[in-house]
Write a structure and sequence with these properties.
InterPro entries: Beta-glucanase-like (IPR000757), Beta-glucanase/XTH (IPR044791), Beta_glucanase (IPR008264), ConA-like_dom_sf (IPR013320), GH16_AS (IPR008263), XET_C (IPR010713), XTH (IPR016455). This is Xyloglucan endotransglucosylase/hydrolase. It comes from Punica granatum. It is found in: Secreted, Cell wall; Secreted, Extracellular space, Apoplast. By secondary structure, the protein is mainly beta.
Length: 279
Amino acid sequence: MLDKKMEHAICGGTFSDLFQPYWAPQNVAVDDDADQTKLSLDASSGCGFESKKKYLFGLASMQIKLVEGDSAGTVTAFYMSSDGPNHDELDFEFLGNVSGEPYLVQTNVYVNGTGNREQRHTLWFDPTQDFHTYSLFWNRRCVLFLVDGIPIRAFVSKEVSGIPYPRSQPMGVRASVWNADDWATQGGRVKTDWSHAPFVSTFRSFQIDACDLLEDGSGTEVVTRCTESGQFWWDKPEFDGLDRHRNRQLRRVQRKHLVYDYCRDKLRFSDQLPRECVA
């Protein structure tokens, strides 16, 4: 069902329809005719773009071809975020690698300004050789991180146990390329080699099928409108969670490709694991 929605997203469009640069526009190369936008990182700056609207629940996806060759120290990000210190955020972060080593995909969830919910996965393909589709699905009950339609992570609401969940802050859809050689590759041991710059990631096939913030910018109205039960396709019962097929896919990915899970890091959380890990 979700696959069909992704294939027929009603709000697909060009970069210029949906997005605008928010950081270093000189490093953002937009070609709407070719349906490609290139983000470049050089020694002077990274760059990024953001959606013209903010959204509360729905589906956002784009195809990305990651930096080729020695990309150590770099991060390419596709994420959703609200504003302010107590923001909510859903992250795909692609951590650059030394040539010949696999890319790592780090996902994270921030709620009310608190993150520290990282998972890291390898991929079952080389993400630098072709485009692949990365998607964020978000409703009142779960957040799904999907790669080519396959779930690699599910963050399920446990609000009944008093655990915060991102449900009230509209978020913009964003992407960026930036230097993070203090942590991104082998914990910061491998630094960015600027002789390989510029580092370029390419984006295309932008789709957003989500409840958007009203033009008047009223936060109260958008929360009310976007949370009315049953109004949107993502509120239907079949999207309450993962079906049997999706659960099998997720378990397979976690078994074969999960290399770090904060819920298993008892050294980091020596006193007590985060509440959502044990609820």
